[in-house]
């Protein structure tokens, strides 16, 4: 019986290995009002990494404009997609941080405003829309609040009904501890007393057929309170999920005690989502070795091509080798032991201060940590400047500019396909069906042509004429370089580099 890990093998010796389809596993999403990303972005990423968060909705980033960039943490990077507030002071702003290993899953980014951003991701055969929202505060006008919720309802209503929708953010409202008439959307395990802004949240959930995930799990107070300042505590950060996808939510809770985000608390949501099995190619050199060591020339066109193909691939592999793909983590890692130790000490003293300890040691540790981060970053920045200024490397500045441009791209994963009806195909089956329809129409439509203009030729008796060597050489010389290889893996450069032996052997077959 064939092992389930070895499904099939190609004729060129390539064996396709399939990993077993893993059961649905838990991924962790998060939401937090960071207060400002300036000066604390790296520590925020370190918190997300340590807490196992792969997608985080951030509010009040206070960055102007919009864009995408990498933020370096202790051991990994996160990519942030942000949209700033249009005001001159840039008090608001929203963003979504995605772990490096999930970056290729992003298929679309829609920046609605400085209070709402939509990130569309493909996870397995499922499309997930992650919305980071920052609702107007209690002191702002009623018109601004109605405009925000109107835009939010409009954006979610335009999404496909089959997609998973997750809205997370600082919604600046109190939904209350009990359902009180909103049993369909409120689970009865909230915190505080409901206010007008909380009514907006619940009414929007009713209109969009969503549920407030925070209220569905019974937690102690420290895992419910999302904001603490000046002796007051409240629950104003929420996870809202479409009702049909509520079954995927495993837990929602607050993680208190993170020093770099002291007022708002980190709110996490664990969901069970199945990802695609990973397909990888494993090249089997044993078969190529057997082909290379054949003595007798094979008979027949197919056998001869197999023989020639194996020789060309083996020669190219031996002479040129194989690439290992793009290098990982092109940027220099500045998070060293001194930075790690200073931040750990600052975090420890912060917890002691919250338990009633003195404040001065914490403030001193905070200043020291900021200095260590500055010094570590300066070393790397000086190194980059030296590399760019090096006279022996005149292309250094262009390579740096190209890297910055690539880092600023929104979509780096697979592209989607527009179907004939104008909608976008995201999942693999829809993409394959869209291409099938396109090529069926392209290849099966007969163009107009005049049969009367065809010349009449006399039949030729006997075997077909032999293909001369000079005809083969001429055809090889006309082949264009730099073209992608097909299923065989053979490109024009391989055939040309083989010399006259290929041209001499082809006519005889």
Automatic annotation (TrEMBL):
This is Endonuclease/exonuclease/phosphatase domain-containing protein. It comes from the Eukaryota. The lineage of its organism: Eukaryota, Metazoa, Ecdysozoa, Arthropoda, Crustacea. GO terms for molecular function: catalytic activity. InterPro entries: Endo/exonu/phosph_ase_sf, Endo/exonuclease/phosphatase, Swc5/CFDP1/2. Residues 31-256 form the Endonuclease/exonuclease/phosphatase domain. It comes from Petrolisthes manimaculis. Gene3D superfamilies: Endonuclease/exonuclease/phosphatase. Pfam families: Exo_endo_phos. Signal peptide: none annotated. Residues 1-20 are annotated as: Disordered.
């Amino acid at each position: 019986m064939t092992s389930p890990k070895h499904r099939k093998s190609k004729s060129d010796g390539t064996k396709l290995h399939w990993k077993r389809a893993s059961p649905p596993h838990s991924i962790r999403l998060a939401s937090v009002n960071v207060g400002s990303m300036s000066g604390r972005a790296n520590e925020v990423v370190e918190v997300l990494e340590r807490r196992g968060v792969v997608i985080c909705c951030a509010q009040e980033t206070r960055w102007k404009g919009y864009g995408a960039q990498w933020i370096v943490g202790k051991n990994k990077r996160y990519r942030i997609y942000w949209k700033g507030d249009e005001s001159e002071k840039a008090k608001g702003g929203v963003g979504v941080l995605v772990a490096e290993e999930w970056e290729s899953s992003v298929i679309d980014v829609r920046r609605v405003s400085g209070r709402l951003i939509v990130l569309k991701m493909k996870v397995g055969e499922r499309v997930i829309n992650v919305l980071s929202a920052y609702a107007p505060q209690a002191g702002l006008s009623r018109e601004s609040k109605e405009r925000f919720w109107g835009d939010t309802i409009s954006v979610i209503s335009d999404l496909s009904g089959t997609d998973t929708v997750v809205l997370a953010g600082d919604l600046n409202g109190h939904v209350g501890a009990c359902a009180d008439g909103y049993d369909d959307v409120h689970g009865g395990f909230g915190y505080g007393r409901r206010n007008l802004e909380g009514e907006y949240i619940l009414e929007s959930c009713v209109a969009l057929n969503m549920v407030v995930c925070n209220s569905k799990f019974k937690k102690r107070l420290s895992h419910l309170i999302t904001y603490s300042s000046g002796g007051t505590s409240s629950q104003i950060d929420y996870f809202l999920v479409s009702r049909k996808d509520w079954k995927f939510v495993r837990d929602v809770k607050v993680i208190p005690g993170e020093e770099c985000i002291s007022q708002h608390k980190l709110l996490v949501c664990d969901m069970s989502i199945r990802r695609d099995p990973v397909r990888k190619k494993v090249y089997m050199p044993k078969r190529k070795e057997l082909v290379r060591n054949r003595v007798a020339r094979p008979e027949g066109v197919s056998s001869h091509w197999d023989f020639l193909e194996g020789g060309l691939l083996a020669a190219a592999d031996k002479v040129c080798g194989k690439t290992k793909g793009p290098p990982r983590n092109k940027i220099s890692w500045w998070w060293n032991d001194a930075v790690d130790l200073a931040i750990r000490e600052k975090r420890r003293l912060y917890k002691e201060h919250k338990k009633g300890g003195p404040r001065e040691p914490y403030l001193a540790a905070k200043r020291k940590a900021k200095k260590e981060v500055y010094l570590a970053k300066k070393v790397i920045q000086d190194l980059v400047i030296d590399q760019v200024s090096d006279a022996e490397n005149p292309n250094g500045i262009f390579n740096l500019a190209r890297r910055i441009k690539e880092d600023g791209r929104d979509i780096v994963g697979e592209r989607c396909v527009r179907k004939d009806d104008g909608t976008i195909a995201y999942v693999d089956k829809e993409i394959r069906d869209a291409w099938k329809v396109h090529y069926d129409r392209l290849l099966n439509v007969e163009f107009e042509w005049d049969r009367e203009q065809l010349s009449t030729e006399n039949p030729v008796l006997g075997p077909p004429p032999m293909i001369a060597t000079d005809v083969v050489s001429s055809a090889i010389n006309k082949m264009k370089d730099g073209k992608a290889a097909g299923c065989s893996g053979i490109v024009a450069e391989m055939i040309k580099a083989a010399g006259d032996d290929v041209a001499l052997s082809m006519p005889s077959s």
